[in-house]
Amino acid sequence: MKTADIRSAFLDYFRAKDHTIVPSSSLVPASDPTLLFTNSGMVQFKNVFLGSEKLPYVRAADVQRCLRAGGKHNDLDSVGYTARHHTFFEMLGNWSFGDYFKRDAIRYAWELLTSVLKLAPEKLWVTVYHTDDEAYDIWNKEMGVPAERIVRIGDNKGEPFASDNFWQMADTGPCGPCTEIFYDHGPEITGGPPGSPDEDGDRYIEIWNLVFMQFDRAPDGTLSPLPAPCVDTGMGLERLAAVLQHVHSNYEIDLFQHLIKVAAELTNTKDIANKSLRVIADHIRACSFLIVDGVLPSNEGRGYVLRRIIRRALRHGWMLGVRGDFFWKMVKPLVEEMGVAYPELAAKQAFVEEALRTEEQRFGETLEHGMRVFDEVASKSGRTIPGEDAFRLYDTYGFPVDLTADIARERGLTVDMAGFEQSMAQQRERARAASRFEAKGQMPAELASQLKPTEFLGYHTLSAQGSKVVG
Ligand code: ATP
Ligand code: MG
Ligand code: MG
Ligand code: MG
């Protein structure tokens, strides 16, 4: 089953169960200062859970574009290291706003997976929140999942809601206990079942999380009940596609294979399983959709997350031997893969290409030199890159510190983060002192020091083509 067909199969199933199909919202949350990016399907419904917004329907389903590259949910450092994590991914979700609750949520999920999509039930494991006997009994007695494949996830830290089976979008807001469905990819892959000491492996991969939204968490941590208990579910489209296409890694599914093939051509790489190709294929999705949703590379906030992801991708290209620009050329195959499901992507192809190309040319000027500096520093620093060197790479060569840490990690090294922060603070202090003598308001030091003064090559073209998305 192609990824595109899985999207439709999911929506068709829930449409038939009286769910209203809603469009994906933007990666930039409409008006939620607690959140950097849309990290799950429920984000656009947050106020509905809290009771301050009413919708004309009580059941909904969608395919939501998500980004986990900052804030509470951040998987950037897992990309290229696990079979199952992306920065950008699509989350299939169904919701009940005060309508059905645990029994139907579980029944729908089980029926879709085992009867419609025909997954072998014996490959599926489930977890429940450790005190949730109701969910346990529905799985065990009504769905017939044997006790040996139901795991109660307790909490080890002694805090009532510290464990994984209590879902939270952010430090505040709607939350609740959840039950999750895992797929066993087989004994040839390392990793233990959920709840076991080696659960972080990639053998048992979590595919679907059913959250029973019951509480609103206040900034002081206290929980108050929501006006009505709700259901919020999220299933990773790429993980489900991997299962249905009989491959282990998300990166082996049809959608990614196309992107990886193009990345291999552009970087002249023979080994299609090369980790850098996976990172590049992941990052082109995140970067393109961020730009579609109105984010442009900058030195702060969301724009800085985008810049960091782009620069990581460019560094992987560089590792593969690329010395010119290549990353923006990945937009076209991405549009071929995802432009039908996301017409807004197809419509902005030229704009996205231009924005990426501009950033690529800018960083291209310092990447090579910065890599040489990194090598010199690494050769004389032992196991830890000193903070002041990480700062120099940041300040002079435009290497975000997480990029330096990523390069270091590949070589078994670490970065002295505290030292980096200290150099950063000293720089701020110097800038503050200097600005006291400046008559005119100067750019903040961090901005001014990040590379050369900005010359945004594509500005005119960009604003002409896409002024509406630049927000
Ligand atoms: P994991 O434990 O594997 O990191 P999670 O518990 O953080 O996943 P949830 O927050 O429960 O994930 O999100 C719901 C679903 O979204 C997951 O069951 C999974 O299928 C999918 N998902 C979560 N994070 C990612 C990611 N980084 N890349 C791809 N799919 C993801
Ligand atoms: Mg996670
Ligand atoms: Mg999990
Ligand atoms: Mg989960």
By DSSP (H or I, 4+ residues per run), the number of helices equals 16
Mean pLDDT over the residues = 90
What overall geometry do the principal axes of the alpha carbons give?
globular
In whole angstroms, how far apart are the ends?
38 Å
Q: Strand portion, in percent?
A: 15-25%
Percent of residues in helices comes to 40-55%
Bound molecules: adenosine-5'-triphosphate, magnesium ion
Compute the number of strand runs. 11
Largest sheet: 9 strands, mixed
Which residue ranges are poorly predicted, with pLDDT under 50 across at least 5 consecutive positions?
439-471
Element string (H = helix, E = strand): HEHEEHEHEEEEEHHHHHHHEHHEHHH
Radius of gyration: 23 Å
Q: Decide which structural class fits the backbone.
A: alpha/beta
GO molecular function: alanine-tRNA ligase activity; aminoacyl-tRNA deacylase activity; ATP binding; tRNA binding; zinc ion binding
Enzyme class: ligase
Catalytic activity: tRNA(Ala) + L-alanine + ATP = L-alanyl-tRNA(Ala) + AMP + diphosphate
Subcellular location: Cytoplasm
How does this model look, in words?
- One of its GO terms (biological process) is alanyl-tRNA aminoacylation.
- One of its GO terms (molecular function) is tRNA binding.
- It is found in: Cytoplasm.
- The chain is of the alpha/beta class and about 475 residues long.
- It contains 16 helices and 11 strands.
- The strands form 2 sheets. Strands 1, 2, 3, 4, 5, 6, 7, 8 and 9 form a 9-stranded mixed sheet that branches. Strands 10-11 form a two-stranded parallel ribbon.
- Helix 11 (about 350-380) packs across helix 16 (about 460-465).
- The protein is globular.
- Mean pLDDT is about 90; it is low at about 440-470.
- One magnesium ion binds next to loops.
